[in-house]
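Long-time lurker, first post. I've been practising inverse folding by hand and with some scripts of my own, and I keep getting stuck on stretches where the structure tokens seem ambiguous. Below is the full token string for one chain I'm working on. Before anyone asks, I'm not after the true native sequence, just a reasonable design that respects the backbone. If someone could post their per-position residues I'd love to compare against what I wrote down in my notebook.
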């Protein structure tokens, strides 16, 4: 079994020239005639709901049309050197909040999810020759799965909590019915089925992800894991979680750093302002930890 997995966020895409989320928001507002809406301090999932609700008042809008437009826009993101270096790491599983397939690169991919999820992403995975990619917030091949609004986040969390705490009710015989936490305690039926399993069984290295507080699915998972480890004294949780950040953001986001520490996440500060060099240093740090050949 692999010793570690990665959780990769959108910031690695910012190295590549192309459309930013700010640009995309502006384009969406223009396309759907809601340019008067202010971004302000609105959490993105709520801003998305505001854009959508105002747009459907002006003209009837199928949400799939909006998400298809978004998926087509982000699909234009080009892969860069960091995507290639991540693929070169000897780890089987790469978890990502990104919708596009830059991490997979040009390699052919196959959807091997145990359940064909149209909206949520508990089992959503794509496999290449030697890697499994888990798109936990949806993917561009399935626009309805793209997780943007508050309603979608809450639905995703509901599915996650059922899988971990209550057990599943899928008709498929390939998915374990017992809750993950029960199976972990009993050391039974531990074959990898969902990306969520990895948060309890492997070291997770989190990079390129701001972990905004609105990402209630991930914050719930971190909190639930920490509660089981420290409050319920679950000794089967032996893995480690690591969060990489710059020196600048470590100083600015003190509140977030404190929350991560409380939730059993070790923070690793990388003192580098150049984005490409920053991610190379992260990958070198990971390689050093597991005594892997270092990427140049």
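-- Answer (accepted) --
I ran through it position by position. Result:
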């Amino acid at each position: 079994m692999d010793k570690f997995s990665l959780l990769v966020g959108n910031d690695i895409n910012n190295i590549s020239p192309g459309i930013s989320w700010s640009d995309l928001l502006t384009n969406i507002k223009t396309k759907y005639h809601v340019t008067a809406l202010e971004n302000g301090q609105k959490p993105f999932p709520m801003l998305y709901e505001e854009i959508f609700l105002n747009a459907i008042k002006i003209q009837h809008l199928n949400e799939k049309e909006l998400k298809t437009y978004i998926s087509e826009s982000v699909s234009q993101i080009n892969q860069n050197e960091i995507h290639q270096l991540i693929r070169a790491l000897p780890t089987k599983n790469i978890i990502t909040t990104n919708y596009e397939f830059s991490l997979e690169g040009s390699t052919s991919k196959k959807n091997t999810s145990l359940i064909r999820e149209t909206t949520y992403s508990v089992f959503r995975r794509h496999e290449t020759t030697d890697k499994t990619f888990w798109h936990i917030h949806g993917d561009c091949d399935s626009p309805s799965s793209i997780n943007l609004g508050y309603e979608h986040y809450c639905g995703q969390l509901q599915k996650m909590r059922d899988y971990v705490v209550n057990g599943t009710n899928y008709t498929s015989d390939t998915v374990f019915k017992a809750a993950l936490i029960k199976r972990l305690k009993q050391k039974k039926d531990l074959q990898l089925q969902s990306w969520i399993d990895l948060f309890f069984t492997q070291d997770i290295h989190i990079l390129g992800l701001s972990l905004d507080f609105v990402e209630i699915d991930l914050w719930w998972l971190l909190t639930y894991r920490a509660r089981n480890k420290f409050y319920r004294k679950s000794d089967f949780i032996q893995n480690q979680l690591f969060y990489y950040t710059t020196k600048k953001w470590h100083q600015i986001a003190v509140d977030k750093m404190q929350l991560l520490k409380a939730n059993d996440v070790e923070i690793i500060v990388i003192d580098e302002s150049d984005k490409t060099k920053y991610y190379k240093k992260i990958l070198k740090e990971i390689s050093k930890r597991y005594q892997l050949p270092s990427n140049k």
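A couple of notes from the structure itself: Residues 150-166 form the longest helix (17 residues). The chain has two domains: 4-15+79-289, 19-76. Happy to go over any region you disagree with.
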